[in-house]
Amino acid sequence: MAKMNLLQAINSALDLAMAKNDKVSVFGEDVGHFGGVFRATSGLQEKYGRNRCFNTPLVEQGIIGFANGLASQGSLPVAEIQFGDYIFPAFDQIVNETAKFRYRSGNEFNVGGLTIRTPYGGGIHGGHYHSQSPEAYFAHTPGLKIVIPRNPYEAKGLLLSSIFDPNPVLFMEPKRMYRAAVGEVPEEEYYIPLGKADVVKEGSDITLVGWGAQIEVIEKAVELAEKDGVNCEIIDLRSILPWDADAVVESVMKTGRLVISQEAPHTGAFGSEVAATVQERAFLYLESPIMRVSGLDTPYPLAHEKEYMADHLKTYEAIKRSLNY
Amino acid sequence: MAKMNLLQAINSALDLAMAKNDKVSVFGEDVGHFGGVFRATSGLQEKYGRNRCFNTPLVEQGIIGFANGLASQGSLPVAEIQFGDYIFPAFDQIVNETAKFRYRSGNEFNVGGLTIRTPYGGGIHGGHYHSQSPEAYFAHTPGLKIVIPRNPYEAKGLLLSSIFDPNPVLFMEPKRMYRAAVGEVPEEEYYIPLGKADVVKEGSDITLVGWGAQIEVIEKAVELAEKDGVNCEIIDLRSILPWDADAVVESVMKTGRLVISQEAPHTGAFGSEVAATVQERAFLYLESPIMRVSGLDTPYPLAHEKEYMADHLKTYEAIKRSLNY
Amino acid sequence: MATQTTKQPDVVTSVEVIDGNALRIPMFQLLDKDGTPHKDVKLPEIDKELALKMFSTMQFIRVLDERMIAAQRQGRISFYLSSLGEEAASIGSAAALKFEDMIMGQYREQGSLAFRGFTVEQFMNQLFSNAKDLGKGRQMPVHYGCADLNFMTISSPLGTQIPQATGYAFGQKQAGEGHCTLVYFGEGAASEGDFHAGMNMAAVLKVPAIFFCRNNGYAISTPISEQLAGDGIAPRGVGYGMKTIRVDGNDILAVYAATQEARRLAVEENEPVLIEAMSYRMAGHSTSDDPTGYRTREEENAWRDKCPLKRFRNFLLAKGWINEEDADAQQQEVKEAVLAELKKAEQVPVPHIDEIINDVYDTPTQQLKEQLEALKAHVRQYPDAYPKTSEGVK
Amino acid sequence: MATQTTKQPDVVTSVEVIDGNALRIPMFQLLDKDGTPHKDVKLPEIDKELALKMFSTMQFIRVLDERMIAAQRQGRISFYLSSLGEEAASIGSAAALKFEDMIMGQYREQGSLAFRGFTVEQFMNQLFSNAKDLGKGRQMPVHYGCADLNFMTISSPLGTQIPQATGYAFGQKQAGEGHCTLVYFGEGAASEGDFHAGMNMAAVLKVPAIFFCRNNGYAISTPISEQLAGDGIAPRGVGYGMKTIRVDGNDILAVYAATQEARRLAVEENEPVLIEAMSYRMAGHSTSDDPTGYRTREEENAWRDKCPLKRFRNFLLAKGWINEEDADAQQQEVKEAVLAELKKAEQVPVPHIDEIINDVYDTPTQQLKEQLEALKAHVRQYPDAYPKTSEGVK
Ligand SMILES: Cc1ncc(C[n+]2csc(CCOP(=O)(O)OP(=O)(O)O)c2C)c(N)n1
Ligand SMILES: Cc1ncc(C[n+]2csc(CCOP(=O)(O)OP(=O)(O)O)c2C)c(N)n1
Ligand SMILES: [Mg+2]
Ligand SMILES: [Mg+2]
């Protein structure tokens, strides 16, 4: 075990994956010699050479197109998109190509070796284009897996699983926790299964669901609620696609109440899918409507970032609304 | 009044808009001399010249980037994307640029004059890449309007409103109805308001919600249900963004039951947003869980198209499940 | 540490506007339009066996295309897309590759696939989306693919295969086995952002890839004059610092020789190469298209005169490697084979309904299994509504 | 009916591989690095007033950049991005335009904006995201924009402004008032697909646009040698059949003359023009970056020696249009003005909370109004948690 922040945990996962299998390579804008603008790939070029860790030209659609081709050849590319906000030029390569590669070919070809890493989320004074949480844009895409870790331990285990999973994975890293989140992380490799939610805290009165950096927000809200004597269950989805509906439904059948807290703008966020599914499967158990706490339905503002965000106070208020319904 | 099919209604709307305001121009792949692969822009180049109706090179990100610039200059561009399946290369220009143009500039600039037209949907033996219903990918994007007509009359009135609306509009045309749907359409201009749902049929036992070509499917399902003595209300959303939650909630408060029928793959489709919102706002009125009938969570298959689709029989079965809950 | 830039430009002291046409790239050609070699040319070393394979593949593709256009008109298949007039470009280039080299197509390169050994039966199974289609009936006709033949499955979104080829070739370079990737695309698709991405990345990462542009003058109805302003696609290669060859796409020997040289550069020197093959799309874009709406008969006829098949046939006749009779007989043979396989393929049922959820992931998720079970129950309930698959769920 | 293609290529009968460096484009320069005009050059006609405006803008930008980097270090603003060493490229090109011409920037062209008349106060309001910011505090520092000055609001996604410039210029051509659009971008951004889209569309649609590439050798840490393989960006212009000029970006007179000629071609002949200005990013990419990790001091020093400000200053001194004292005094003046406005701007509160929902659409939707009301009620409940806006909701 060692103390690692989230960046170090990711760096460690990449390092171990590259050491284990020489078909793993890491590339993207500034990831080479420099080690990436957040330094997640620090030291990897020195260690594994310019053929396995390298800069690409500045073209996201090219990075993912290239990565698709490389994966179809049998390699295990780990492509970095510098910010989640800049993944959209690659949207066609991801949604029309990556996700459909195996199905459309009748399994003649696949890009299962592909992992796309990208930092996402707000709270860093990044304004419109360094703050978005675009997971829902991808969650409507059969063929993709989407994984979001909440802390360094989870990050390493989930990233290793993503790299070696035989399906393409979009791995989204909560960038405001890169250095802020520190925890005990094994130095050796370990794997956390994809598609399985994690019950972060058990409780009986209400279920809270979130993912990534939002779990920290939820924990703060729960702290407030527990002072009021409310016993909360917290579930970290960990995987957005495929997502663990069973775990959430089971919990809601127990607690009868559900609050989803998410960073993205409200309309069309992934929380809508969670709510739609849970009301269908746990209808008779629900004691109050499923509440969603989200960002506002606006682009991500800079000066009003605090007001915009789905913070712990808004989440706490939603818990109260759910209980007092 | 004249009998028009959906293509003719669209052509008529474009023609009237171009005649009314010479800042309206129409462009895209093959839309010029040839009049578009579906012939929606037929005759417009002859009538309005090559400066106002023209072919672009084959590059969707360029078409929308160009259209954004042209709209920001004060023009009213109507850009065509040949198939909804090919809109993804333009995703960044739409989601990061079009949608945020006004907000990010503090209203110094805007692309309110922009309309993007694109055919969408299945049922034409088009397989993966001529069948998708990508509306949900855009519905998570504040700043955009999304409009989908269900028949020729609606198409013309909604398209005219979209072109002259001071906000960017994504106008999605149900292509399998292009020639199949024929109806009475006024020859002169008329406007149907955006953002307002339409109660296609009133009823008391259950509410059905859909949009675009799916309304026809719903009507067929309702025909079957009414034979069983079920009195159905049908709501056509018409606008996906902003969407008329009030209309749906009001209806569900009356009927107590809701089935959403949609073409897109199940997970993350727009129906999830409808369900999540309605269960929140009409919780105490719901007599059974909100049901969604959708495409399967797979890419759109060719040989199994019939099995894949959210057809009238599946919708009918959902109505029964809702009533027998 | 990497240095910022290597070359120092020359200095001029008055504004020098470089003209858009500063670079005129000539076209390489060996045979005149009647199949006679130009004077004093060095023809590529092709033995008789290879030459006859190239020729018979050309004949086969011509037959296949004509027959399947007819089949579409008869309503037997929903869609077809022919390569009429462009057979030399695909077959000549495929012939210059090693079998292990990867081919990525756009959709008009059935010639390359046939050259690799895709059988008439395999073509038919794909075209009829039946249970024997390698692609499991999931994509529209002509979206072929075959791992055994190193031919990547076609996808409709244009240009996407170009950066993918760069990535594939990068993997081949890492593997170090001396293979390369050849990727085809039209001059229309070369307008896509993915073209720019793939070309630039290939040039800077020095991958063994051949970017083969079929410039056939049209993208559906859009003539090249409305597609681009420059001298075709070739000068763009230079824009990326990439080696570039322009070749007569209707001259199969020139295409062969050009691709051979490109392959040498790619594999031996890790120099990616752009080839622009000048040709003409003789038929409509696809069976959904009618070109009389946007071009003249005269224009078509001028090109019909440059037919690549006739040209190569004449060459082979002159060389004495074929005679008229044998050639005609072979053509007749493939006609019959195509017809026979067509009849067989249309009898094969669609894939089993279980296939609807396979291959979304390596194994179906829990949710997909549930969706399949619900679907099967539904089909059982309404067997008549789903006649193609109801048998399979009994 | 449109004809398929116009030019017939010349024919060659042996494989001619065009080298990736077939086209070497020279660089236009008027002043040597000490500011002395080269022999026998024709200098552009610039009167004293304009020359001094260009010079004082350069001085201002130098001061602004240095001051704001310091302000960021002090924690007074969150982010800054300087144009150190590239002042000639932006200011020289802006000076050659008409005021009505549209400018679209990438983010390192504060010089052009200042030349247009953006005031120190306006710069500060944007940098402090306060209630007086024209952009209403919504974007990060340096994302300026001003409709009155025909300077499009900057957006962070790279390259997106390039096809937008093509569209804007198309509108200008339709309007027929003789205006054009100049769009800036870095050599890194020129790798984006949007570059390809915008350039090709401009060339084929013949719009009055100037594509101004600031080639400063780096995209964050990535040197141009890992960005592209060719001879910089200029040869790509020829790839699109577009007129192209390469200019010394540190020579403001050459930039001015090149842009003047480009503007003439754009407006009078509807010929879009690519300009590649060769320069160097003297500072880090932004305040978040430390270039010592990826380049050498020697490299930086070699370029420091070519400082565009010093060069123009020397030219003006020699011409007798400025003297050392006045120049220094002016610099001192702007220093004080910047400091004074900075202090003022940091006192201005953030925009009112109501602004959070304005401008998503032309008018807020029902749903946005409800979200705002809920938010305001929440802020009223927890005023201490939202100190910047709670005053406004009382
Ligand atoms: C991204 C994308 N946009 C549009 C289309 C529709 N489309 C199919 S083929 C075609 C024309 C392609 O022309 P070209 O690349 O020159 O190839 P050719 O058909 O001439 O062989 C178009 C516009 C598509 N398949 N993909
Ligand atoms: C689409 C996109 N991808 C990545 C980034 C992150 N990014 C910001 S600036 C930059 C480098 C740009 O280099 P260049 O275009 O040469 O301009 P310069 O900074 O040198 O002026 C990168 C990668 C971005 N803003 N947008
Ligand atoms: Mg073509
Ligand atoms: Mg740069």
Q: What do these coordinates show?
A:
The complex is a heterotetramer, with two copies of chain A (325 residues) and two copies of chain C (394 residues). With 325 residues, chain A is an alpha/beta fold. Chain A folds into two domains: 2-185, Thiamin diphosphate (ThDP)-binding fold, Pyr/PP domains (Rossmann fold, 3-Layer(aba) Sandwich); 198-323, Rossmann fold, CATH 3.40.50.920. Chain A has twelve helices and 14 strands. Chain A has helices spanning 6-20, 44-48, 60-72, 91-97, 101-104, 135-139, 152-164, 214-227, 245-255, 270-281, 305-308, 312-323; strands at 2-5, 24-28, 53-55, 76-80, 115-120, 145-147, 169-174, 182-185, 198-201, 206-210, 232-236, 239-241, 258-265, 291-295. Chain A has a seven-stranded mixed β-sheet with strand order 3-2-4-5-7-6-12, sandwiched between helices. In chain A, strand 2 (24-28), helix 2 and strand 3 (53-55) form a beta-alpha-beta unit. Chain C has 394 residues and is an alpha/beta fold. In chain C, the strands form two sheets. In chain C, strands 4-3-5-6-10-9 form a six-stranded parallel β-sheet, with helices on both faces. Chain C has a two-stranded antiparallel sheet with strand order 7-8. Chain C starts with 10 loop residues before the first strand and ends in a 13-residue tail after the last helix. Chain C has helices spanning 48-73, 87-95, 110-116, 120-127, 161-175, 193-205, 224-227, 234-239, 252-269, 297-304, 308-319, 324-345, 366-381, and strands at residues 11-12, 27-28, 102-104, 151-152, 181-186, 209-215, 218-219, 222-223, 243-248, 273-278. The mean pLDDT of chain C is 96. In chain C, helix 2 (87-95) packs parallel to helix 3 (110-116), helix 4 packs across helix 12 and helix 5 runs parallel beside helix 6. Chain C has two domains: 48-345, Rossmann fold (3-Layer(aba) Sandwich); 353-393, no CATH class. Chains in contact: A-B, A-C, A-D, B-C, B-D, C-D. Chains C and D meet through strand 1, strand 2, helix 6, helix 7 and helix 8 of C and strand 1, strand 2, helix 6, helix 7 and helix 8 of D. Strand 1 of chain C pairs parallel with strand 2 of chain D.
